[in-house]
Amino acid sequence: MNTTPVLAVTSGEPAGIGPDLCLRLAQHDQNRPLVVLADRDLLRQRAGQLGLAVELHDYTAQQFSWLPPGHLHVLHLPLAQPAQPGKLNPANSPYVLELLKRAAHGCQSGEFAGMVTAPIHKGAINDAGIPFTGHTEFLAELTRTAQVVMMLAGGGMRVALATTHLPLREVPAAITAGLLESVLRIIYRDLVRRFGIADPRILVAGLNPHAGEGGYLGREEIDIMIPLLDGLRARGMNVSEPLPADTLFVPHRLAQCDCVLAMYHDQGLPVLKHASFGQGVNVTLGLPIIRTSVDHGTALELAGTGKADAGSLYAAIRMAADMAHCEQASSYTGRQN
Length: 337
Prior knowledge:
This protein is of the alpha/beta class. The chain has two domains: 1-145 and 287-337, Isopropylmalate Dehydrogenase (3-Layer(aba) Sandwich); 147-285, 3-Layer(aba) Sandwich (Isopropylmalate Dehydrogenase). It has twelve helices and twelve strands. It has helices at residues 18-24, 40-50, 93-109, 122-127, 135-142, 171-174, 177-193, 220-234, 245-248, 251-254, 265-276, 311-336, and strands spanning 6-10, 34-38, 55-58, 71-76, 112-117, 149-154, 157-161, 201-205, 238-243, 259-262, 281-285, 291-294. The radius of gyration is 21 Å and the shape is globular. It starts with 5 loop residues before the first strand and ends with a helix. The model has no long low-confidence stretch (mean pLDDT 93).
C-alpha cells in the first residue's frame, strides 16, 4: 500500500492526444504514484486503437497501490457523448472542466500532491457556450487566487511572463509597477518553496528594443521598471535591471540566473520552445496547489495514430513530483524552525 499522495493527471480534450499520452504512462515505471482522470471506456477504446495492452484499475484513495508497467490507475469521470479521435464535440466540454475541478479539489484537500494537465481545446469549450480563456485562468478562479504567473521550463531555462495572452498593442499599458512587483514576488516565493532555490536570481527583460535605448525607443524602462527593480534590490531581491531581450538569452547570462521574466508571450517563449519543444513544461506559479502541464496543444490530427510524443507529459510529471518533494521539505523545515 502507498501512503504518499498521488499526482492527478487530467486527460484533457477527449478527441485529442491527451488520452493517448496518458495510456503511454502505463508503459514505464513512474517515480511517483499516479492516477489518470478520464472516462474509463474512452481509455479502453483508445488503447485498442493504439494497440496498447493496458489494464485499467479503478482508483480509490483508501486502496491505492503501486502498479507494474502495463497497468494504470483511473479515476473514472463519464463523457457526455462518445468521443472520436480528431473530431471535436462541444457536448463533452463540461466533462473536460470536471476533470480539472476534481483534480484541483483533490489537491486542495491533500488527496493529491499536485495535478498535471494534458492539453484541452479552448475553442470547443467556448463553442459549448462556456466562456473559457485557458487552464491558468480557470484554476486561478477555481482556487480563488487573485494572481498567478505562467512559467515555462525546458532547455535549461525557466521563462516566466509578466503578461500572457494579450494583443501586443495592449501590453505597454499592462506593464505597471504594481503588476511587476506582484509577479516578481510570486516567482521568487515559488522558486524558493517549490524549486528549492534559496536565493533566486531573476533576469528581467526590458519591454522595448534595446531596453528603451535610454528613452529613445520608449520610456517604460526609465519611468516604471528601473525604479521598481532598484527598490526590490534594495530590499534584498536578486533581480536585474531591464535587459535587452535580444541579448538576454545568451549562455553566459542564463548561467547566472534561475529564471527570466519576459514582458510578453512572444518575447520569451519562442527562445525556450526552440530549445525544448516536446520536452518543455508549463508551470502555474502562485496557486495554492501544484500544477504543471505539457507545452503543446491537442494535436487532433495525431489522436489515435500512435504518433504522439509523450516526452512533455513525462517531463511535467517529473517536475510536479520534484515540486511536491521540495514543498514538503520546505514545510517540514519551517515546522522545525
